[in-house]
Design goal:
The chain has 274 residues and is of the alpha/beta class. The protein has two domains: 28 residues; 219 residues, Alpha-Beta Barrel (TIM Barrel), CATH 3.20.20. 41% of the residues lie in helices and 13% in strands. A hairpin with an 8-residue loop joins strand 1 and strand 2. Helix 8 packs across helix 9.
């Protein structure tokens, strides 16, 4: 038996198939758009979900795993694109072990401004240091209350609580509102997190220069610190150091002197995003 379609029916069958193809394509794109809207994917990060850097040329800004342009959409930054020899010095403060005071002394000696990103327990347990950081002209930034992996937080309410709890403690101690600078613990983040922080009025700050200085019982040598920091220093660097590091407290005076001799000046983070 001949099952061929009558010639006059072929155009209708072809038109119908085209319609099905176009409809399937449109539905697929629509679903993808909805998923992107309601479940935004993370900005490209390292395999473990952390902020990461690739140092390709000594003395030049490293390549981040998200571009400056991508981050700027959410008032987030990891360096400044500039020809000026300027450094933005920051410290992460999770607890107190006797190294904050010499760090503050060195900063005061050189009249260098810095931002200290503090966790809630640090603020609660060290009100005198919070007061001194502020009185010395530095900025206190928000490193969340519990130092959680913020990329795993999906609700706005939980995210806000982590930051607002630190804000409340800071105001109780200083009588003033906290500067809305935020650094994600461990550099773990998502695009949704960046939007949440931005919606709260925060600027998010990653870094373009850091080294492994956070293991209290396995501190880097002075030579290692100098090699990792000075050799990779670049214009517009946001430098991340930990205030818990004995090495940092020991070398900071000398390190600042060296950087000044190289022609660098120090500015505050509020300059970024203007």
């Amino acid at each position: 038996m001949n099952h061929k379609l009558p010639f006059k029916l072929l155009p209708k069958r072809i038109a119908f198939c085209c319609f099905l193809f176009i409809a399937a394509f449109a539905i697929g794109n629509g679903i993808a758009a909805l998923k992107q809207h309601f479940f935004p994917k993370a900005v490209t990060t390292a395999a473990d979900g952390n902020w990461g850097l690739s140092f390709q040329t000594e003395g030049e800004t490293p390549v981040g795993n998200a571009t400056m342009e991508e981050l700027a959409k959410y008032n987030a930054y990891y360096a400044k694109d500039t020809d000026e020899k300027v450094i933005y010095l920051t410290f992460d403060a999770g607890y107190e072990n006797g190294n904050t005071e010499p760090i503050l002394d060195a900063l005061k000696k050189h009249q260098v401004p810095a931002t200290f990103f503090v966790v809630g327990t640090y603020v609660k347990e060290n009100p005198d240091f919070i007061k001194r950081i502020k009185e010395d002209g530095h900025t206190v930034g928000n490193h969340t209350y519990h130092h959680k992996d913020m990329s795993q937080i999906s609700t706005v309410e939980t995210f806000q609580e982590e930051l607002q709890s630190v804000e409340t403690l800071y105001k109780e101690i200083t009588g003033e509102e906290m500067t809305k600078f935020y650094r994600p613990p461990q550099g773990k983040y998502s695009e949704a997190n960046l939007k949440m922080a931005n919606d709260m009025g925060y600027k998010t700050f990653f870094w373009s220069l850091a080294y492994v200085d956070w293991y209290e019982n396995d501190q880097p040598t002075k030579a290692t610190a100098d090699e990792k920091l000075t050799k990779r220093l670049h214009n517009g660097a946001i430098v991340l150091l930990h205030s818990t590091s004995k090495t940092n407290s020991d070398i900071l005076d000398e390190l600042l002197t060296e950087w000044e001799q190289l022609g660098y000046s120090f500015k505050t983070l509020d300059e970024l995003g203007k």
